[in-house]
Predict the 3D structure of the following.
Amino acid sequence: MEAEKFVVHARIDVRTLETWVAAGWLVPGSVEGRAHYSEVDLARAHLINDLAGLGVNEAGVPIVLDLVDQLHGLRRVLRHALAVARSGQAGESG
Amino acid sequence: MAADPYEVLGVKKDASQSDIQKAYRALAKKLHPDLNPGNKQAEERFKEVAGAYDLLGDEKKRARFDSGEIDASGAERPQQRQYYRDFADAGSQYSNDAGFADFADDDILSQIFRGRGRGGPVNMRGQDRHYRLELEFLDAINGATQHITLPDGASLDVRIPAGTRDGQTLRLRGKGAPGIGEGPPGDALVEVTVRPHRTFSRDGDNIRVELPISLSEAVLGGKVTVPTPTGPVTMTVPKWSNTGAVLRLKGRGVTRADGDKGDELVALKIVLPEKPDPELESLIAKWGGAYNPRETMEA
């Protein structure tokens, strides 16, 4: 979706969006030279909004986002590893 | 969202705004789905807490709630949203490998990263996605097709089977997140809320309706038209029918999964003409029939 639609869904104003993009908290894609936002960006914007509501300040937000992203990376690898281990077991028994 | 928001947040009715904010933050930190990606139960509780805070965190809304002007369901329905964690497995521009970069040389892990474990490439089923849908009463009873608009603007057709209940979850196979490798996609799970109807209410597989009848229909009997979810039908009111008498319209209720149908239960209610009628008054005065309908009542 485009920025105009995105700010409505994310419940933020255009200036806030510009600040977040400038800070690298959101990394929109690009369609025909215009910024394009996906569902991931929207979910991430909701998370940033919630963090502010929890009292996390401007300095804290990127730290939390980075740790959450790392946590997701680790969970993905763990899931992957479990799936491999499981399919390996299935191969042996069959 | 019917729970008392004060209880949800665990604060007293006279708590200060800052106490309420503190209570919300303490709970939200523990329950926010994105800060607890492994905790599946957290999401429902978080929605409750966010809903309660939406009501009490705003001094004006809280005052309206306290004065009874709006009830707990006056809290803004939590926005239908997907959490950031829902995208964690798909990978995105935000994916970050720093958490395991130092394991990359490990034999076993490097095999996994190449997708060549002992069992070959990894196939995993996609995640389920959750949606919420509000239905009109008659659509839920008779069945319908509804469109859900997804956050990205795409839409999904949902077939509502006849007899769908409030709170029921419909599963749309394969309409969730795409699978990994050759894994099948997940399902879309649609939780249904049914709006109440002015005339009908539901009682299991039966429909209940209150039917006003005139004094002469009550005394002499007669044919009356009764609304049912599938349209009006004619019913005979037996003579000498009292307020509270319940007549059964067989098969006019809710369609069950096995194709059978419940009944419509029609409760009669005698209604006098709106304006006083001198003719009726003189008739009754002449009637003089004395009876005590309160005989069996205790003093």
About this structure: The domain at 3-93 of chain A is CATH 1.10.1660.10 (Multidrug-efflux Transporter Regulator; Chain: A; Domain 2). Chain A has one domain: 3-93. The helical segments of chain A are 3-10, 14-23, 39-53, 60-93.
